[in-house]
Design brief:
The chain is built from four helices and 22 strands. By secondary structure, it is of the alpha+beta class. The protein is flat.
């Protein structure tokens, strides 16, 4: 008679025999390849903050802060969950990153953003309330203190101490109200918080700073600059050269640093730097951390192009401005992937230089050609050019 213990041992033996084929199937190279597959993480949808708008206003939604941990390309889909009674609002393009609609009735508009990386999906909601404001308090403008400056020396104006009691985003506008009769000075970056002025004549310059909040309320502050003669430049002094560094592509939300350290003075004089963020995406609230530093730092808080201007001076002569464009994208092209898929085969055979064969596009611009694995030509997009060039330079 077989005991319970011996039955258990025998049963365990047959179980081991039964699972051995399955264990063998997991071995070998195929098993190793399968076990090393990259884990796909789901994307993160960001539909933007809830906010209040005026009835009849066009509302621009923004999903550019959405992201994917694996760097996968994302697809977007917006839809209304609810609308106020009487509203017939429609989205301009439900599949766009930043679609728009008209808030055609008072009340709450609740929208859902679905973000998909090809395998997984994530959702986020945003509520847009259309209502007349009970009371909008005007902002406070602060153009800085009146002071004495030297002719020929760039001056960084600063309106960043301006504020809004309700925390609204401010828009800036600087204007020269009066100047010495022989002055031809202009403000560089007049729609930024930190523009640059080079006083070019002795006398008083009166400038107005106007700040406006999101509902149009405004305030004005005036600054008076008294320009005195600057020190005469040394004999043979030459103008410095500004270098704002190459254009680049960055992911949305990145902290961007642009190094102007390659700027130089042919006489070896010390340089002073003046950065301006002269253009940025409509939804961006970013600003430069230190406009007078050699390195410009800002947060690319919205998708689109950021245009920066750099001028340098040695205290006697001022350079021509140089410009850099930073393009922010939720899913920037993968330079390594582009090289592997488009260039590596032909490049290894010596058939072409990935960035050395220009071709005229329909707009008359010179763009690099690449070859796909079957040697068919196609023109790279500007974003692919930047990503591929960065990868090749890194190698």
């Amino acid at each position: 008679m077989m005991t319970k213990t011996s039955c258990g041992v025998l049963l365990s033996f047959f179980c081991i025999l039964a699972i051995l084929p399955a264990l063998n199937g997991c071995g070998g190279e195929e098993g190793l390849v399968e076990s090393s597959a990259v884990l796909n993480f789901p994307p993160t949808a960001e539909a933007g903050p809830d906010r209040t708008v005026l009835p009849g206003e066009e509302v621009l939604l923004d999903g550019s802060a959405s992201s994917d941990r694996n760097g996968d390309s994302l697809s977007f889909f917006w839809r209304f969950i609810s609308r106020p009674t009487g509203s017939s609002a429609v989205l301009s393009d439900p599949a766009a990153i930043m679609p728009a609609f008209i808030a055609d009735a008072g009340g709450n508009y609740v929208l859902e953003l679905a973000v998909n990386d090809g395998q997984n999906e994530d959702n986020d909601l945003v509520t847009i309330r259309a209502a007349e404001p009970e009371e909008n308090l005007p902002p406070e403008a602060d153009a800085g203190l009146d002071r004495t400056v030297r002719t020929g020396v760039p001056l960084l104006l600063d309106g960043r101490q301006s504020s809004d009691p309700e925390g609204d985003l401010l828009r800036y506008s600087w204007e020269i109200i009066s100047h010495p009769g022989d002055s031809l000075a202009v403000i560089s970056g007049p729609l930024t918080s930190t523009p640059v002025l080079v006083p070019d004549a002795v006398g008083e310059f009166a400038l107005d700073l106007v700040v406006r909040d999101s509902l149009g309320a405004s305030a004005t502050d005036r600054i008076v600059l008294t320009a005195v003669p600057g020190s005469p430049p040394p004999a043979g002094n030459r103008e410095p050269l500004a270098n704002a560094a190459p254009d680049r592509l960055v992911p949305t939300g990145a902290l961007v640093t642009i190094d102007g350290g390659e700027s130089f003075d042919p006489d070896g004089d010390e340089l002073f730097f003046f950065w301006s963020l002269i253009e940025k995406p409509a939804q961006s609230e970013t600003s430069l951390v230190d406009p007078a530093g050699s390195i410009a730092i800002f947060r690319a808080d919205a998708a689109g192009d950021y245009h920066l201007q750099l001028t340098v001076t040695d205290g006697f002569a001022t350079s021509d401005p140089d410009f850099a464009i930073v393009t922010s994208s939720p899913s920037p092209p993968d330079g390594m992937g582009l090289y592997d898929s488009l260039c590596s085969v032909c490049h290894s055979l010596g058939l072409h230089d990935p960035l050395g064969a220009p071709e005229l596009s329909g707009q008359g611009e010179l763009l690099p050609l690449v070859f796909d694995p079957v040697h068919k030509e196609r023109v790279l997009s500007p974003g692919e050019i930047l990503a591929l060039r960065d990868f090749i330079d890194f190698q």
